[in-house]
Design goal:
The protein is of the alpha+beta class and about 290 residues long. The protein has 2 domains: about 50 residues; about 230 residues, Immunoglobulin-like. It is about 15% helix and about 30% strand. The strands form 4 sheets. Strands 4, 5, 6, 8, 9, 12 and 15 form a 7-stranded mixed sheet that branches. The protein has a 6-stranded mixed sheet with strand order 3-7-17-16-13-14, with no helix packed on it. The radius of gyration is 26 Å and the shape is globular.
């Protein structure tokens, strides 16, 4: 009577006779099932561990507290208390700030940072990617974008979402020396998907009940000017400027990140700075 195959032997398939087939095959299958289950459990554990690390990691240990401003009147006439934040986005981390002198561990990483009210570089800032704002408040953020850019993987993020009116105020050339617009100010709802420098995207899931999704594309600065300034050891005089407002709900903590593939040198450019807290991602803490 022909045998039936069981586990793989060193030099080929092991054949067993019918009398012992059921027991041997059963043992073999049990070992395979156990190995498969072990792999699944270990894989799940690794995924959970990575997720926990990414959610909890704070390479930027500081927190920027948004500054109180005049009350904000929404288009429907509702009045809200208002706070403001001023942020800069750089093509590297040599500005110092929360990364420390010389750009810290990754001076070549692109990075968000605390900025002055007119886009000034704040090299002594102790925080730059973790922000605290009050609940039930209008939050107005101005971002000066000093980096160049390319094309988004997903043009969904070329559209402004979650802001008051679904709009932002945009200046394509802001003169940091004159502290004035060098091009006309305009209201926008989107930008070309092939002219994106970075995005500011707050994801909707918090650690509590209120949900919040905000995503604003930040147009690239002139590539030649960015490159020339960087080679000279500085930043372009003419960043783009984008200002937007959104309304917070109840207290909670959210993760924000850039959705432009800016992790140069990594697979699909989604690693390095793009996946590292303290550079192109951080926390939005709604508390107060």
């Amino acid at each position: 009577m022909p045998g039936v195959p069981c586990c793989e032997a060193t030099h080929g398939t092991l054949w067993v006779t019918r009398g012992k087939t059921q027991r041997r095959v059963g043992e073999c299958m049990n070992r395979r099932i156990f190995a498969a289950l072990t792999t699944v459990v270990l894989g799940f554990g690794i995924i959970v561990g990575i997720g926990t690390y990414v959610a909890a990691a704070k390479n930027d240990p500081g927190v920027l507290i948004a500054k109180s401003a005049e009350d904000y009147t929404a288009p429907d006439g509702t009045q809200y208390p208002q706070v403001k934040l001023s942020l800069n986005v750089y093509p590297n981390s040599l500005f110092g700030g929360h990364h420390g002198a010389g750009g810290g561990a990754h001076p070549d990483y692109v990075s968000y940072a605390a900025g002055g009210p007119n886009g000034e570089v704040l090299s002594d800032a102790k925080a730059g990617t973790n922000f605290q704002v009050p609940p039930h408040t209008a939050v107005t953020i101005t971002v000066y974008q000093y980096d160049s850019g390319e094309t988004l993987n997903n043009d969904y993020f070329a559209h402004i979402r979650g802001t008051v009116g679904g709009t932002a105020t945009f200046v394509q050339r802001w003169d940091t020396k004159a502290k004035a617009n060098a091009s006309p100010e305009q209201q926008i709802t989107n930008i070309p998907a092939d002219m994106v420098g970075h995005t500011f995207t707050v994801h909707g899931i918090s650690d509590k009940k209120s949900q919040l999704f905000v995503s604003v594309p930040l147009m690239m600065s002139n590539d030649d000017e960015v490159t020339a300034a960087e080679e000279a050891g500085g930043y372009t005089q003419f960043p783009t400027k984008t200002t937007f407002t959104f309304i917070t709900g109840d207290e909670g903590e959210y993760v924000w990140n850039c959705e432009f593939p800016c992790g140069d040198g990594t697979i699909a450019r989604f690693g390095a700075a793009m996946s590292t807290m303290g550079y192109m991602s951080g926390h939005l803490i709604v508390k107060g």
